[in-house]
Amino acid sequence: MSDSLSILVIDDNKIRATIIEQGLRDAGHDQVILVHRMDGLVRQIADINPDVIVIDLENPNRDRLEHMFQVSRAVRRPIAMFVDKADRGSMEAAVDAGVSAYVVDGLKRERVKPILDMAISRFRVFSKLTDELEEARSELADRKTIDRAKGILMKSKRLTEQEAYDLLRRTAMKQSRKIIDVAQSLIIASGLLDD
Amino acid sequence: MSARLTPVIAGFIPLLDSAVLVVAAEQGFAEQEGIALKLVRETSWANIRDRIAVGHFDVAHMLAPMPIAATLNLTSLAVPMRAPMLLGLGGNAITVTSELWREMAGAGADEYGDPASTGRALADVINAGKVVGKAPLRFGVVHPFSGHAYELRYWLAAADIDPDLDVEISVLAPQIMADALAEGQLDGYCVGEPWNTAAVIAGAGRVATYKQAIWPNSPEKVLGVTQKWANENPETLASLMRALSKAADWCSAPENAELLAATLSRSDLLACSKSLCLPALTGNMQFDQRLITQIPKFLTFSGGVKAMPSPAQGKWFYEQMVRWQQVNASAEALKHVAEVYAPDLYGEALGLTPVLDARTPKLFDDTNH
């Protein structure tokens, strides 16, 4: 039997799952299996016979999975990590990052902890990426809104683009508001007037 | 102004009986008591359990047996807990596929869902199936430590159906149940509303019986707090329970049902259509495509004395845990259970006198299991 642990990663989010898989492989774990769907999972787990199961906390099937671990005779019984409560910090870090892990009863903590630490850090990286993407998206949306407001001013007040932008900016400063807020109000107001 | 409010973070699962928490946060009841109540929607009871254990949540919407299971160390990340207040009574039903219902009706099942009658009919169907070597029927519940699991098991066992041998019981998330039934992965399930109505409206299922008929006026969800948080924040907890009591009264007023249904159906809450929420909130339950029946107290929210937990209720849940071999019986454990369901915190907060033995469970078959 190989000395390396087999790790099952259950995550609906394929990109995140791949990021975790890559991290685990880079750390020398060559037995990593990704699962995105819960159908037939009992059989899959029985076939794969994993030592460690990593699952994202957004997954609505955690209750199903935990129950399965309790009752199924087909799988070696996995238990939630950190049940001994000695490792409160790690547990909190995992929940904070949005990940949970189960290990086959009896496995030594020292062998498993680096795996969870890896999953935690990869989850964090992923959520940072998502946040940045979200930010970029909303910046783009803001810019579009401001462009629309400028267009309205250019048309109705016969201004150049620069003049329209300056007017928005001055108005925002006078009212201590953000340019995007002024632009939004202008678009709404102009929509009302059009009707 | 808001700087003087005490923040309380509450985890909840998007179900009809999260109503009391939602209304307390949104209709000003929490604020009136000096609480800034922030709700966090969760996707599993396991998350609720983990996040209250690590302190992300101060309080949570919990399945009535969960604080007991945590206190008795039956789940992972178990910490001693309290269930100082009931958040909802009733509200669950057992739904079976239309096909299974046809067989049960053929065996004389009461169309209004009398549990003794529908249970007997199901037993006949199962026994007939055994003769021809049919695979066991598959039922779903939302959690092993839930009212749903114990109601389903009680109903089956009362009809001499062994829940561990004669049927298969698995755990599924509530919002997935109706689809699982429609796709033929389940023959029936016990779940809270609106997930029975969902199967009925989709034409996939038929209500066979319901919690209010199995154990009338029984707790379904409770306010869950860790013993530690309750000890460290007695005044905040008392204020919160006063706010929740008023919110529960608001929820129970018939004239608020429409607004409550509209609120709960929102995409940041249950994310379903309003018409799915209304039946349970008005007690006007649809059992199949044809039969709509008025069931008073199908699901009840109430403040005041009705929201006070009683050790007898906790004891019933504990006895089910023992009965289904989730835990060994012990006098020591029973003492802890009585503490989890002690009425003192709520009684003191609301100025009510606990009525200790007034709520001895009376089940449909009138035994005391």
Q: What is the topology?
A:
The complex is a heterodimer of chains A (195) and B (369).
Chain A: E1 7-10, H1 14-26, E2 32-35, H2 41-48, E3 52-56, H3 62-71, E4 78-80, H4 88-97, E5 99-104, H5 109-157, H6 161-174, H7 179-194
Parallel strand pairs in A: 1-2, 1-3
Antiparallel strand pairs in A: 3-5, 4-5
Helix pairs in contact in A: 1-5, 4-5, 5-6, 5-7, 6-7
Chain B: E1 6-12, H1 19-26, H2 29-32, E2 35-41, H3 45-53, E3 59-63, H4 66-71, E4 81-90, E5 92-97, H5 98-106, H6 115-131, E6 137-141, H7 147-158, E7 167-171, H8 174-182, E8 188-192, H9 195-201, E9 205-210, H10 211-214, E10 219-226, H11 227-232, H12 234-252, H13 257-264, H14 274-282, E11 284-286, E12 292-294, E13 299-300, H15 311-323, H16 331-340, H17 344-350
Parallel strand pairs in B: 1-2, 1-3, 6-7, 6-8
Antiparallel strand pairs in B: 3-10, 4-10, 4-13, 5-8, 5-9, 11-12
Q: Would you give an account of this structure?
A:
The complex is a heterodimer of chains A (195) and B (369). Chain A is α/β, with parallel strands linked by helices and 195 residues long. Chain A has two domains: 7-131, 3-Layer(aba) Sandwich (Rossmann fold), CATH 3.40.50; 135-194, Winged helix-like DNA-binding domain superfamily/Winged helix DNA-binding domain (Arc Repressor Mutant, subunit A, Orthogonal Bundle), CATH 1.10.10.10. In chain A, 62% of the residues lie in helices and 11% in strands. A five-stranded mixed beta sheet of chain A has the order 2-1-3-5-4, sandwiched between helices. In chain A, helix 5 (109-157) crosses helix 6 and helix 5 crosses helix 7. The relative contact order of chain A is 0.11. Helix content of chain B is 43%, strand content 20%. The model of chain B has no long low-confidence stretch (mean pLDDT 95). Chain B has 17 helices and 13 strands. Chain B is globular. In chain B, the strands form three sheets. A six-stranded mixed beta sheet of chain B has the order 2-1-3-10-4-13, with helices on both faces. In chain B, strands 7-6-8-5-9 form a five-stranded mixed beta sheet, sandwiched between helices. Chain B has helices spanning 19-26, 29-32, 45-53, 66-71, 98-106, 115-131, 147-158, 174-182, 195-201, 211-214, 227-232, 234-252, 257-264, 274-282, 311-323, 331-340, 344-350, and strands at residues 6-12, 35-41, 59-63, 81-90, 92-97, 137-141, 167-171, 188-192, 205-210, 219-226, 284-286, 292-294, 299-300. In chain B, helix 5 (98-106) crosses helix 6 (115-131). Chain B has 369 residues and is an alpha/beta fold. Chain B folds into two domains: 2-90 and 219-270 and 301-350, Periplasmic binding protein-like II (D-Maltodextrin-Binding Protein, domain 2, 3-Layer(aba) Sandwich), CATH 3.40.190.10; 92-214, 3-Layer(aba) Sandwich (D-Maltodextrin-Binding Protein, domain 2), CATH 3.40.190.10. The chains are: A alpha/beta (195), B alpha/beta (369). At the A-B interface, helix 3 and helix 4 of A face helix 3 of B.
